[in-house]
Amino acid sequence: MTVDVLEYRPETSARSKQVPQTESTAVPVVSSDRLPAGGEPRYELKFVIERAELARVRAWLRCHPTGFLTTFPRRRVNSVYFDTVDLACFQENLAGVAPRAKLRLRWYGDDLATCAGTFELKRKRGAIGQKPQYMLPRTVRLGQTTWPELLREVNSGLPPAWRICLHQAPRPAVLISYQREYWASADGFVRATMDYDLRVYDQRCSARPNLRRGTPVADNVIVELKCAAAQRDQLAEAAAAFPVRTGRCSKYVRGIRASLSC
After folding, report:
1. CATH number at residue 105
2. Total domain count for the chain?
3. What is the dihedral of CA 12, 13, 19, 23, to 10 degrees?
């Protein structure tokens, strides 16, 4: 699988709040063998449901023929997404470019300011995704630093492949936070996550991490079914038993759209 890598363009002017064009501006400036390796290929399907149906969604999972059960306590997921100044990753997602990739820094818990985080490069081709990861060696205090200082510190300790990723998508674009519940089928082949209580914090024009000024955003329930490539048939059977159709839903795209509209 090849992945286009984003061209680095230093910021030269204030960003417009107009929604960018949907043509891809990504440029393959390095070969994919220099990007982070790892992350088993998996199939992913998403369902987007009204927030008012949260209790009903849980009932669907409990009564599902595959016997979904909770596998992990609910927790808050936090991710800072990185992009170019002209939001090339955002544009690629709107245009449906394949393959494509997004770089994010992810951590868990209610404390947005304390990031014991992991860099993830989420690669996507159709319904197949991969997610190489690199855990930061130390906790980052987002509430006590500026973005330039934080990125210099983080970049100095990254392996070469991850430095390339951060160089190609160097701008913190948005912080997205939500509650996640974890489920799995009785045989363990199909996993499900249920996300809701979405919160968005625009980072594009902030010298320091913006952890307080939230951006209004629609809050749906997003259910994602996932399985290893070998269990594709089980995933199709599980999806067929859901009372709603699959659809596209990128939290990153939703967060950027909300930020651009303010």
Report:
1. 2.40.320.10
2. 1
3. -30
Helix axes 251-261, 88-95, angle to 10 degrees: 110
Show the domain range for 227. 32-261
pLDDT, tens only, 164-177:
999 999 999 999 99
- Quick one: pLDDT at residue 3? 31
227-236 as b/e: b if 16+ CB within 10 A: beeebeebbe
Is 23 among the domain residues?
Answer: no
Q: Is residue 15 part of a domain?
A: no
Assess if residue 144 is contained within a domain: yes
CB 241 within 8 A of CB 65: yes
CA angle (64 as vertex; 76, 69 as ends), nearest 5? 45
156: part of which helix (H) or strand (E)? helix 147-156
How large a percentage of the chain has pLDDT more than 70?
Answer: 86
Residue 39: which residues within 8 A CB-CB, separation 6 or more? 121, 123, 130, 131, 132, 133
